[in-house]
Amino acid sequence: MVKADTKFFQILPDQEIDQIHQASLYILENFGVRVDDPQLRNELYTRGCEIERDRVKFKGDLIRQVIDNVTREITFTGRSGKKSEVKPGHVIAHSTGGIPAMLDGETGRKRNARLSDFIQAMRLVDHLDQLDMPCALLYPEDVPAQISQIRQLEHMLKYSTKPIYGPGVSSAGEAKYIVELFRVFAGTGASLTENPIGLVGISPESPLYFPQEITDTMKFIIAAGIPTVILSAPVAGISGPLTIAGGIAQMNAEILAFAAIAYFINPQTPLIYGSRLNYPNMKNGTSIWGLPEVGIGNVAVAQLARRYGFLTDVYGLSCTSCTFDNQTGYEKAINAILPLIAGAHMFSGFGSMANLIVASYEQLVIDNETFAMLRKVKRGMEVNPDTLALDVISSVLHGGTFLEQEHTVRHLRAGEIFMPKLGFDHAWSEWEATGKKDIRIKAREAVKEILVNDRFEPLPGEIEKEIDKIVQHAFQELVTR
Length: 481
Description:
- This protein has 17 helices and 19 strands.
- The chain is an alpha/beta fold.
- A seven-stranded parallel β-sheet has the order 6-17-16-13-12-10-9.
- Helix 9 runs parallel beside helix 10.
């Protein structure tokens, strides 16, 4: 276990975090998880698990062994050499994944996402300085479902110079080809764990269920050593307890069970704690991602995962609002800043609207600015002889101005005062003089400017041919057979 660090915001005292931990252990030891694959159940039995029909129960000692093995630091390297370090003290932002619809910036209408939208989104996010790892933002309707995850990864590898947050993988058939695509960049026989180009996500089902398709997927991905985010997503009151504490206890049990199974497959594969607990409108069952409970729960998750030493990935920039209004701003800000100051490591939600059902290029640009402000919050302030500036005050009092001081210029250039790239930071008269533009209009202009000036650097020809060959084989096996 890792000792708690009191410099982080905490919503629960340590003893209540321990209660959640103990509740998760109780769930695993007494209720267990359903595992469909009989061969895997037998393998888990030989590792010390108890089997009761199709349920696998994990002993506390085994779970503690798994916790002691968690990865505490990962460095991802994009094809251009750009790096994203996931480790304590660092914050990584990535876009949402798997959104089925686009908000068309020209018409203002919602429509189904297409592959051309996916490619354009990848071009756009490659230029957003606050987005560290692009995710498979959209689920294109014009791609066969049998190879959708493969085609998403294909275009991420082709269009991103940054490390990638690959698609959520839920098909063993696709998982085999996803491993092959990752190997193109690692080289034949090279480790996919050391200096990886990216990661993928895999989701157990709630409550406490590992279908064979998911465990077969794990056998491909985990065995290959591809870093994996464990995406557990119980819906409060529907596929998990309604209470925040109960939902976290169940989700934590699902994540620990996944980690245990992964440990037996390949103990070297890095795992990230992916909290996706969400809360519905109980009148219709719709998951409402803008609620404050999302942020509150993820503070507790950050505390719990830090106790284990897990790296965490949470929904920060999520909202329920369907347009560019105040609701979008306050929902995203509240649900991001809470886990940020609690010490979470990775933040999803870039570009999402309407409970993760709609994506928007403009929202990607707005979220980029929001996250720049969040990083400034995390940076905080320094108190030392230089920042206290007593000599500067003395100098001004003896004649002079603060504006002409070297100290002022140096700290301004160092970013002491946040300077927005998109938001308005002038006076009312200047706002009127520049056309009274709202944030949506300015974001739309920024999107157009980025895409017009984009100088896409294609992959080397041999690598692109290898990717195309893998995708073609996948199409032949999974679609046309």
